[in-house]
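Case study B.
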Amino acid sequence: MSVPHLKIDNLRVAVGDKEILQGLSLEIKGGEIHAIMGPNGTGKSTLASTLMGHPHFHVTHGTVELDGQNVLEMDVDERARAGLFLAMQYPSEISGVTTADFLRTAINVKRGPGNELSLMKFIRKLEEKMKILEMDDAFAQRYLNEGFSGGEKKRNEILQMMMLEPRVCILDEIDSGLDIDALKVVANGVNSMRSPERSFLIITHYQRLLNYIKPDFVHVMMQGRIVKSGGPELAIRLEEEGYDAIKEELGIIDETVGQEA
Amino acid sequence: MTVETKAELTQSYITSISRELDEPDWLLELRMQGYQYSQSLELPKPEKTSIKDWNVTNFNFHLDERPIKAWDELPEEVKRLIGQETSKANVLIHKNGRPVFSQLDQRLQDQGVIFKDLHRAVKEHGDLVRRYLGQLVDAGENKLTAIHTALFNCGIFLYVPKNIEVDVPLQGIWWQEDGEVGILPHILVVAEAGSKVTYVENTLGAEQGAAVNHYVAEVFVGPGAGVSFAALDNLGAGVTNYVWRRAQVERDGRMDWALGQMHDGDTLSDNLTLLKGDGSAAESKSVAIGRGNQSQNFVQKIIHIGKASDGLILGHAVMKDSARGIFNGISKIEKGATKANGQQTERVLMLSDQARGDANPILLIDEDDVKAGHAASVGQVDKMQLFYLMSRGIPKEEAERLIILGFLNPVVEKIPIEGIKNQLIQVIERKVKP
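Model:
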């Protein structure tokens, strides 16, 4: 059960009657870090959201399996307890609920009744992770994401990831809106979690993040599918030649799914 | 031995009550005025809420309750309401409308702080009480205020002398042990110039029984003074509530209301603050839950008379089952109140299709050089917030509970005593359980 195996097969996803993902397949094994890159409007965020069970997207075809279990049949909270985690691009703000209380609830739900983490241990762990992310202590008592800057929200996502210790971590454009220093800190947090029993799916627009989090596999998404896969060198090639080079190579004229997803 | 009688809106009954409570003539006269008005005036007609069939005078009175001499005599459920270390608690307990227990730190007494049941205060500080009683809620306003004036049976007088800052919260408890007994308290708070005080009250209602709660609180905030008034209203479904809470704030004074309006019966609640002096400020925060077949009408109003007066109204309510709730926020800025700032937010969270919630923000502005703003919304639990919490492994029901608690938190966080704060959370959780 420990080493996660995520298998996405021929996934087609729509929003309303607009099809975004058009037959995406991907396999991620424990210990692997996969990066998905691509221009805007190609369905990258849709993939991330769909895996987590976002209510706006519906799957029209294909399967997603985690350790042989059908993920698409699980409710959002079940998927989380099975080990999935999504660091969101636009996290919700929830007034009146502190980050600390919310995290403690989430951790204890996972651990189950009778096996809750003591308050002392929780606080110690929280302080430890907040230190790695160079977050001010005060953050834990602030209301969840309320009044947070974009960068603070991103750091809060990574803090949650470090506290919940998921098995499959999906990071949706965790680098957007971060300056170089914040980026390094976030990458540090992610790298501290690398393990053979954990896999990462990193969605990014720019190659820069991948200088700090070295991927094992890089995929390029266009027109709602993965159109090219390779190793870390593919990211470097993209940085040097741009997406146009890939489009030309593959004979793609319009890489988007037709409308802003 | 308790003497229980059925309350009557008659001159002879009112006179007998006044005699029984050993009241001075001026107080009996005040009651009689109330009686006269009750015969000539109409019931108020709140918008969209018809109260003509509501219980107004059907309740009993207890004229005598044995005083409680020691902590151990208090039943567990009352002790739990104290929420502070009992020997240090500054608390005044009324049982079935009669004062039964009071405790005030000697240190505060030495400073001249008065925290007594109203009738004792009338005896010992008559002139002081008389100066303020009825100045903000007049018997002649409508039939309900008239009835209160005629029949109120108890109350609290809280007085803080000039420049005294009371650093511990003072607590009032309204314990309705008999479900047929009416609770008709009159709370009078006077904070002289430069003083500070926090008053918090909670109720313990009987589970069964039909009665009425004719409640009035008048708060006078002197120049540069600060009063915080927190309340956890939670009487049973059989009690009909008419609640009038009013404050007047002088120059540079500050009034903070934190009202957890959790009565289970039909409720009419009027919260008004007059920002009389220049630089005066007030915050009126209220949270409410409507369930079952309850009908509730809430008004939160701030009137700006002084220049640079600052007012904030916040009303958050959760509606479920077939309950009906009307939530009115009124910011009134009078001519001459230049540089005033009146802000308000009314939000209603609907948990069922049959419930009904109206959020009505009203700005009445008669001056140009001012700031005013409002936000109102009625909606269901945000699906994105639900998705976010569930994506961390929190089951749907638990996620909803967190969102609702967060929604009502603006008042929860303002309750000064930890024990009462927890009590409010418990009441909320019990009421929103599906």
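The longest helix of chain B spans residues 396-412. The remaining cases will be described in the next quarterly update.
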